[in-house]
């Protein structure tokens, strides 16, 4: 999932530099959502509620 976050951030940066604000915003929003999911899963693992095997 971290790979997808990095890809989306690169796409957002490239689209922003090329003058495509809609694509940049969509990619940044996707990255932001994935970062939130990763943080929630990380917190659940740290609290012992969710086990990763």
Automatic annotation (TrEMBL):
Domain of life: Bacteria
Segments passing through the bilayer: 34-52
GO cellular component: plasma membrane
Keyword Transmembrane helix: yes
InterPro entries: DUF1328 (IPR009760)
Keywords per UniProt: Cell membrane, Membrane, Transmembrane, Transmembrane helix
Membrane topology per record: Single-pass membrane protein
Annotated localization: Cell membrane
Family per similarity comment: Belongs to the UPF0391 family.
UniProt-recorded name of the protein: UPF0391 membrane protein HNQ71_002248
């Amino acid at each position: 999932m971290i790979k997808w976050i990095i890809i989306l951030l690169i796409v957002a940066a490239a689209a922003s530099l090329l003058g495509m604000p809609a694509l940049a915003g969509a990619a940044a929003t996707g990255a932001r959502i994935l970062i939130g999911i990763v943080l929630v899963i990380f917190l659940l693992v740290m609290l012992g509620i969710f086990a990763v095997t």
